[in-house]
């Protein structure tokens, strides 16, 4: 069966962040992820993980000045040292929390004329970041993000991410493949899964319904079909539930309960 991780930055927002770990465990999740955990001490988060038998499977490195709307620094000339300092901070958290992978956001390019400089900067920064993470035994994730939700974001297409991996050529650099963003940007989701997963380029996946980013049993993506394709391909990584519940988190978990129930029934009849 596929492994699903609750994204605690978007789910269970009815309660304070640290209290979300207990709710995720109560609902049957074994893994959790979040965006930026840095408002809380790593030791406090680690205690929640241990108390509730959870694995933290993903965090993001700091994105820059969030209050100024920054969405990462990796492609921005003149910001490399700050970006790498953020990567080091993320590594410190990851080692305490037992996190195996860190997402480093690319950043928003100010104008089209800056694309070439941003590309050179991005490749160089990723190479340095991957080297830092490799020394700590961690993987570096890059995620194409759709230009509707995040206009000007440097990395938006799946083929672009595959090309970046080829150019940087580091064993611990992988694609964080968010199927919601893939659908919003270019569609053809299962073909992109086949191309990236088949080549061993995917280190983590995320899901949400499209186009509204609610539960995955809503919208235009057929996740029942997608899940069967992932099972057939032997995908054994985590799938982050990075969606905004349409009502409350628990009210919208029927899709996951049905998946688990079907898997249990299949195992029992085998």
From TrEMBL:
Pfam families linked: AP_endonuc_2
Source lineage: Bacteria, Pseudomonadati, Pseudomonadota, Betaproteobacteria, Burkholderiales
MF terms (GO), sorted A to Z: hydroxypyruvate isomerase activity
NCBIfam families xrefs: OxoTetrIsom (NF043033)
Domain Xylose isomerase-like TIM barrel: 22-258
Annotated InterPro entries: HPT_OtnI_isomerases (IPR053398), HyI-like (IPR026040), Sugar_Epim/Isomerase (IPR050417), Xyl_isomerase-like_sf (IPR036237), Xyl_isomerase-like_TIM-brl (IPR013022)
UniProtKB keywords: Isomerase, Pyruvate
Entry superkingdom: Bacteria
UniProt keyword ATP-binding, yes or no: no
Name this polypeptide is given: Hydroxypyruvate isomerase
Active site per UniProt: 143, 242
């Amino acid at each position: 069966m596929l492994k699903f991780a609750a994204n605690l930055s978007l789910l269970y927002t009815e309660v304070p962040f640290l209290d979300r770990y207990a709710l995720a465990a109560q609902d049957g999740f074994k893994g959790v992820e979040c965006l930026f955990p840095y408002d809380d001490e790593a030791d406090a988060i680690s205690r929640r993980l241990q108390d509730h038998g959870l694995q933290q499977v993903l965090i993001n490195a700091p994105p820059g000045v969030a209050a100024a709307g920054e969405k990462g620094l990796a492609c921005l000339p003149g910001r490399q040292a700050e970006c790498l300092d953020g990567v080091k901070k993320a590594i410190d958290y990851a080692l305490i929390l037992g996190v195996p992978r860190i997402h480093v956001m690319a950043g928003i390019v100010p104008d089209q004329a800056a694309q070439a400089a941003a590309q050179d900067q991005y490749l160089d920064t990723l190479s340095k970041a991957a080297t830092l993470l490799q020394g700590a035994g961690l993987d570096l994730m890059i995620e194409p993000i759709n230009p509707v939700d995040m206009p000007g974001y440097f990395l938006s297409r799946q083929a672009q991410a595959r090309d970046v991996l080829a150019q940087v050529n580091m064993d611990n650099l992988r694609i964080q493949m968010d199927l919601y963003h893939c659908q919003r940007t270019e569609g053809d989701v299962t073909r992109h899964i086949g191309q990236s997963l088949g080549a061993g380029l995917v280190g983590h996946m995320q899901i949400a319904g499209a186009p509204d980013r609610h539960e995955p049993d809503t919208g235009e993506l057929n996740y029942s079909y997608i899940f069967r394709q992932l099972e057939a391909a032997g995908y054994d990584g985590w799938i982050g539930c990075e969606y905004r519940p349409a009502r409350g988190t628990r009210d919208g978990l029927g899709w996951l309960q049905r998946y688990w129930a079907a898997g249990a029934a299949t195992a029992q009849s085998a």
